[in-house]
Specification:
There is one protein chain. With about 300 residues, the chain is of the alpha/beta class. The N and C termini lie close together (about 5 Å). It has helices at about 5-15, 25-30, 40-45, 70-85, 95-105, 135-145, 150-160, 190-195, 210-220, 235-245, 260-265, 275-280, 295-310; strands at about 20, 35-40, 50-55, 60, 65-70, 115-120, 120-125, 130-135, 165-170, 175-180, 200-205, 225-230, 250-255, 270, 285. Helix 1 packs antiparallel against helix 13, helix 4 packs across helix 5 (about 95-105) and helix 8 runs parallel beside helix 13 (about 295-310). The strands form 3 sheets. It has a 7-stranded mixed sheet with strand order 1-15-14-13-2-11-12, with helices on both faces. It has a 6-stranded antiparallel sheet with strand order 3-10-9-8-7-6, sandwiched between helices. The structure holds adenosine-5'-diphosphate and magnesium ion. Adenosine-5'-diphosphate binds near residues 39, 90, 94, 95 and 121.
């Protein structure tokens, strides 16, 4: 292919909202046999909202503000207040969803005297002199707080429904669960089907837990054996590398800061146009429309451009 022909193709694609960085990106695109899709913000909209706040059936509020046997409704509000207050220090979409929900419930947030966050796991904050933890099972294991049977089965139940869960703990004890849900983008199912029709293998990658990830994968028809869940931000790149080591030509699609190294590592990195600047800068292709339909267009365009100029 001549550079000028590829340049012309690039311009044509741009008119369709598919921005190839250069001619080489168009060329590499047509050899892709494997697509790795980030879950949150790529397959889904990435706009979490709270669905459930759960406390143990023996939990309530103590006079000193701790949680003990008592009124369940009050306990739920207290768990929500603590979780939302702790999330004030975070920029995670789950945190924002919890804060927004607490506000709709007329809950006044507390001040934080200390805050720390562990990417892909959770946050820790000091509220009214007590340490509050909000995060996933991995995070609580790391902190050394035991997961009671009651909360383990609650997590199961919520995650089977495709909800994302976080545990809430005070000091050395788990006191509640908050779950959020995220809407799957309108055309994700259809686009993944179109990729399969082209003979492309699709994988999902996420920091979210296995059960939630599988429930979402099931909805969009991704093989459960091709779900990579609980992947820490710094480990996404290794997952892409592993597939490449198996001889696959990999395109990685993502939107977040977390995705940037994996986008660079992939044979073709594709950024969702509504994503973060760093994801866009790390990519070979960016999709102006923030949907997977545009990804299918990118494949079609690269094939068409390339067959014309060959
Ligand atoms: P994703 O790949 O879906 O963008 P992340 O790597 O950002 O996920 O986070 C993975 C998991 O870590 C979340 O599903 C959540 O359980 C936990 N987590 C991360 N940050 C927070 C936070 N600020 N508050 C609560 N949980 C968090
Ligand atoms: Mg994402």
């Amino acid at each position: 292919a001549t550079p000028t022909a590829l340049m012309a193709g690039t311009g044509k694609a741009a008119e369709n909202g598919v921005l190839f960085r250069d001619g080489e990106a168009i060329q590499t695109m047509k050899d892709i046999d494997t697509v790795v899709l980030d879950k949150t913000g790529t397959i889904t909209e990435g706009n979490h909202s709270v669905t459930d706040v759960v406390v143990g059936d023996d939990t309530g509020v103590r006079a000193d503000g701790g949680l003990l046997k008592g009124d369940q409704r009050e306990a739920e509000r207290e768990v929500l207040r603590l979780a939302a207050s702790a999330e004030r220090g975070s920029e995670h979409p789950i945190g924002q969803a919890i804060i927004d929900y607490a506000e709709t419930q007329g809950i006044e947030l507390a001040e934080l005297s200390d805050f720390d966050s562990v990417p892909g796991k959770g946050i820790e904050a000091v509220i009214d002199g007590r340490t509050v933890y909000v995060g996933n099972v991995k995070f609580f294991e790391e902190v050394g707080i035991e997961l009671p049977q009651f909360y383990e089965s609650k997590l199961n139940e919520l995650e089977e429904e495709g909800k994302t869960t976080v545990l809430v703990g005070i000091e050395d004890e788990i006191v509640g669960v908050v779950s959020t849900a995220d809407t799957i983008k309108d055309d994700s199912y259809e686009a993944i089907e179109a990729l399969h029709d082209r003979g492309i293998e699709t994988w999902m990658i996420t920091g979210d837990n296995e059960r939630t990830a599988r429930a979402i994968a099931d909805t969009v028809n991704i093989d459960p054996a091709r779900v990579m869940a609980g992947v820490l931000p710094q480990d996404k790149i290794d997952k892409v590398r592993q597939l490449q080591d198996e001889g696959k030509e990999v395109a990685m699609i993502g939107d977040g800061i977390n995705d940037a190294p994996a986008l660079k590592q992939a044979n073709v990195g594709v950024a969702i146009g509504t994503g973060t600047d760093i994801a866009i800068q790390s990519s070979d292709v960016s999709l102006v429309r923030g949907s997977l339909g545009a990804l299918v267009d990118a494949f079609t365009l690269s094939e068409r451009i390339f067959s014309k100029i060959k």
